[in-house]
Amino acid sequence: MIGRIRGILIEKQPTDIQVEVAGIAYEVQVPMSTLFKLPEVGDAVTLHTHFVVREDAQQLFGFIELKDKTLFRTLIKVNGVGPKMALGILSSVDSDALVGLVLSNDIAALVAMPGIGKKTAERLVIELRDKIKDWETAGGSAAVTGAKAASPNAASAAREAETALVSLGYKLPQAARAIAAVQKDRPEIVSSEELIRFALKSMA
What we know:
By secondary structure, the protein is α+β, with helices and mostly antiparallel strands. The protein has helices spanning 32-35, 66-75, 83-92, 95-103, 107-111, 118-132, 154-167, 172-185, 192-203, and strands at residues 4-13, 16-21, 24-29, 44-53, 58-63. The chain folds into 3 domains: 4-63, CATH 2.40.50.140; 77-132, 5' to 3' exonuclease, C-terminal subdomain (DNA polymerase, domain 1, Orthogonal Bundle); 154-203, Helicase, Ruva Protein, domain 3 (Orthogonal Bundle), CATH 1.10.8. Helix content is 46%, strand content 19%. The longest helix is centred in the middle third of the chain and has 15 residues, at 118-132.
């Protein structure tokens, strides 16, 4: 089991990054909440990780905050929720907000997340409620470190953002509409990461 890695961030894009440790580059899948908090490429980074071994693949998932890893592990124990869906959930809303949705039985908000139908949302509420009732929220949210790297132009940033949203489980037309709306309302945004962040907020 790989529980934590510390190394140099050598590549980042939604939702996959690479961290070099002692000459070995680890491919790590991260939720958008972690991607927004990553340092600049070339800087040191520490990630809490969860290693998944399947017959056809080995996947490493990483999180800046330990509580996100803990909640990810709790999510994938829910019937019908796999690592990809759990990653999409934690990309749509932060851990504390998700706990609030579950404890308040907000089925409608859960259904709005990628890949979650009404039955899955109901299972999330039922199966998570007792497991997270003692959840303690952290005081204040962590700041995003490092400036966001700008895409070459708005069109390429939009394509990257749409691809990332689709990888999280959103349908392409839905992703395209959300990105277009953000670009219309916030024309000053030129990075795919910021487009994704505002698009996720608008769809939450």
